[in-house]
Structure formats: structure tokens, C-alpha cells
């Protein structure tokens, strides 16, 4: 059983988030709910949490403080932040606890699921995070520049195991800043965009009957065949085999 922690003080939002995760992940996943950071830490200490999804602004104990405790006790736990506030001190703290994603509300379900799936299947990196840089308000020229460099990185490296953190480091941006600027340009997170791009390339390869489905997954950055099939089905509504049968 894989354990996921969801900490969100707004009950309706928490219920909606849990439902999205439960419907998408299915059996084999236990989702634990917390209404504040202190309860999140309690649940984390009671269960082998693999991914912690934390709202930042919560009563009793903030998501930032809870994340720091979780990171200190289990650096391998994937931390995802959700927040409606775009503040530099939050970005700095997200870097400090090696957060895998920093999602600004409102986010769409595919963006959230892409981040959760990536956190489940990707081991955290050991390298030091990039230093924080004061974020600038996103504007068209700057967002376009970041977007162009990010797209070039994706198109060049999508066949490898990459993440938003890898792209930010390669392009010399802090992770939360890069995440925010990418979404300002494309309307979705780096992780969600990367998943969609990989699946588009996979659809092209599936139209070639000489390429095995397993090889298709590997060629677009998914060495785990089960993970590839799961992402493909979520984005297309079909398994790779069903898609190939319908397009040959």
C-alpha cells in the first residue's frame, strides 16, 4: 500500500482533492487527510507517507513548518506545495525543503495528477537546490524567454528522466521562479506539459507497427511500462495497445 498525505484546511477543497486522487490512482493507495500542519505531521509519523501534498497557509502549523519536519525526518518523502499566495518567502522555503512541485491555485486536475505521478515514480535528487533569486512579476517578454528556453530543454531531453528541478537548474533559475514563469507562459506546469509532450511523441511512434509498445515508452522517457501506460491512458482515454489498434 502506497501512502499519500493531503493537508488542506479548507474542507471542501480537501475533499475535492482527495476525490481526484482516489479516482485517478485507484486501489493500492491510502490517502490520509489533515486539516492543519500539526495533524499532517502526526499522520506522517503514523504512516509510511511517500508523497505529502501540503497547503501552505494553514492554522495551528503552516505547511512550510510541517514540510520542514517531514523533510528532516524523511528526506525521501516527495513534498508538493499548494498555495493561493505567490510570495518570495514561500518560494525560498519551498527550495529549502526540496519541494518537488509548487502549484499555484487554481490548478487543474491534470496538472495536479502529473505532479503526483512524477513524485511517486521519481526518487528525489541529492544535489543542492539552486539558490533563490528574487522573482519578478511575469510579463510577456520575460515569460516568453523562459518558455522558449524551457521548450528547447524539453524537446532535447524528454527521452531522459527529467523533472522541473532539472530544467530549472540547467537554465539557472530557482525552482519556484521557473515553475511560476513556465505556467505564466503555457498555462500549465512544467510536469504537465512534459507529460503531454511525451504522450504526443508516443502517439507518433505507436503508428509505427515495427516499434514495440515497451520501446515506445522507453523512447519517450518512460522506462517503467506500467507508469507509461497509466499516464497514456489518463491523457488519451486509451491504453497504448488500444490506441495502436485504432490507428493502424
Widest sheet, order of strands:
2-1-3-4-5
Strand content: 5-15%
Q: Number of helical segments?
A: 12
Distance between the terminal alpha carbons, to the nearest Å? 38 Å
Radius of gyration: 18 Å
Mean model confidence by pLDDT: 83
Shape: globular
Q: How many beta-strand runs?
A: 5
Low-confidence stretches: 123-140
- The helix content is 55-70%
SS-derived structural category: alpha/beta
Strand and helix order:
EHEHEHEHEHHHHHHHH
Q: Could you describe the largest sheet, including whether it forms a barrel?
A: 5 strands, parallel
Layout of helices and strands:
Elements: E1 2-7, H1 11-25, E2 29-34, H2 37-46, E3 49-55, H3 63-73, E4 78-83, H4 88-96, E5 101-104, H5 109-121, H6 140-157, H7 164-170, H8 175-186, H9 190-206, H10 213-219, H11 225-236, H12 240-247
Parallel strand pairs: 1-2, 1-3, 3-4, 4-5
Helix pairs in contact: 2-3, 5-9, 5-11, 6-8
Task: Give short descriptive properties of this protein.
248 residues, alpha/beta
Question: What does this molecule look like?
Answer:
- The modification 4-aspartylphosphate is found at residue 55.
- Residues 148-246 form the HTH araC/xylS-type domain.
- Pfam families: HTH_18 (PF12833), Response_reg (PF00072).
- The chain contains 12 helices and 5 strands.
- It has helices at residues 11-25, 37-46, 63-73, 88-96, 109-121, 140-157, 164-170, 175-186, 190-206, 213-219, 225-236, 240-247; strands at 2-7, 29-34, 49-55, 78-83, 101-104.
- It has a 5-stranded parallel beta sheet, sandwiched between helices.
- Strand 1, helix 1 (11-25) and strand 2 (29-34) form a beta-alpha-beta unit.
- The longest helix has 18 residues, at 140-157.
- The radius of gyration is 18 Å and the shape is globular.
- It starts with a strand and ends with a helix.
Amino acid at each position: 500500500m502506497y501512502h499519500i498525505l493531503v493537508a488542506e484546511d479548507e474542507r471542501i477543497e480537501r475533499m475535492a482533492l482527495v476525490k481526484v486522487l482516489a479516482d485517478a490512482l485507484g486501489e493500492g493507495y491510502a490517502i490520509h487527510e489533515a486539516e492543519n500542519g500539526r495533524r499532517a505531521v502526526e499522520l506522517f509519523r503514523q504512516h509510511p507517507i511517500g508523497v505529502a501534498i501540503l497547503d501552505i497557509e494553514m492554522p495551528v502549523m503552516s505547511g512550510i513548518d510541517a514540510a520542514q519536519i517531514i523533510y528532516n525526518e524523511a528526506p525521501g518523502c516527495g513534498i508538493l506545495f499548494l498555495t493561493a499566495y505567490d510570495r518570495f518567502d514561500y518560494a525560498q522555503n519551498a527550495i529549502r525543503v526540496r519541494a518537488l512541485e509548487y502549484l499555484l491555485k487554481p490548478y487543474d486536475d491534470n496538472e495536479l495528477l502529473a505532479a503526483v505521478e512524477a513524485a511517486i515514480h521519481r526518487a528525489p535528487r541529492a544535489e543542492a537546490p539552486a539558490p533563490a533569486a528574487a522573482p519578478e512579476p511575469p510579463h510577456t517578454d520575460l515569460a516568453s524567454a523562459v518558455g522558449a528556453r524551457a521548450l528547447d530543454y524539453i524537446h532535447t531531453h524528454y527521452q531522459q528522466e527529467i523533472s522541473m528541478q532539472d530544467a530549472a537548474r540547467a537554465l539557472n533559475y530557482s525552482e519556484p521562479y521557473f515553475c511560476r514563469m513556465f505556467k505564466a507562459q503555457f498555462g500549465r506546469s512544467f510536469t504537465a506539459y512534459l507529460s503531454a509532450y511525451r504522450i504526443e511523441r508516443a502517439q507518433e511512434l505507436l503508428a509505427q507497427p515495427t516499434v514495440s509498445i515497451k520501446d515506445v515508452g522507453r523512447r519517450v522517457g518512460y522506462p517503467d511500462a506500467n507508469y507509461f501506460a497509466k499516464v497514456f491512458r489518463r491523457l488519451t482515454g486509451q491504453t497504448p495497445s488500444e490506441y495502436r489498434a485504432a490507428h493502424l
